[in-house]
Amino acid sequence: MSTYELIGSRGCGSAIVEMALTLANVPYTLTDLPYLKPGPGRERLLRLNVTGQVPTLVLPDGEVMTESAAMILHLNDVAPAAGLAPPPDSPERTRFWHLLMRLVGAVYPTFTYADDPPKWTTAGEPAELLRTRVHDRRAELWQEIDRHAGAPHVLGRRFSALDLYVAVMVRWRPGMSWFQQYCPALYAAAGEAARQPDVGAVLARHFDPPME
């Protein structure tokens, strides 16, 4: 098998795909760069991915993938034994799809709007109002997802890529102490995932010291 290239940045969603590549046991190289910093790395990233976002995955045949969920599902096809997604005949399959799409389609965009509100509205009070409302909406979404979460993993007894997402995302705003208080099932699942050596090693590289 030829080699994948993962383009990512420390502390970003590329950590999720990095863990998936490791668990899938496929050969890959990591191009780690501050993806918003102007320079040759940023210029190459924009040539590969017009959004200039990470993760960006270059497949062995040169095809470029730009969405983390697509990368996860591709790797599940390549290495189903890694257990990134439940098998098609599994009773957990429907819930996996539901929660994966909820994470990438509803929670992820809140960071787009709340991280830089003046990009989307007038600076000052309107921007701060947008930030507050998006933060509140994110909290609602996380608490909704927490009600669907099982133990010890998000899907219950079955580990999946959902645990990789949660292990990374609890380290983003609003932070791990908030998750421990308001989303205890997700917090526990994140801790369980982090105890896997391959997962823990990637988390330590991206979030050492832990990021809130």
From TrEMBL:
Source taxon at top rank: Bacteria
Keywords per UniProt: Transferase
Pfam family, one: GST_N_2
Record bears the keyword GTP-binding: no
PROSITE patterns for this protein: GST_NTER
GO molecular function per UniProt: transferase activity
Claim: Chloroplast is one of the keywords in the record: no
Name this polypeptide is given: Glutathione S-transferase
Annotated source species: Bordetella genomosp. 2
Taxonomic placement: Bacteria, Pseudomonadati, Pseudomonadota, Betaproteobacteria, Burkholderiales
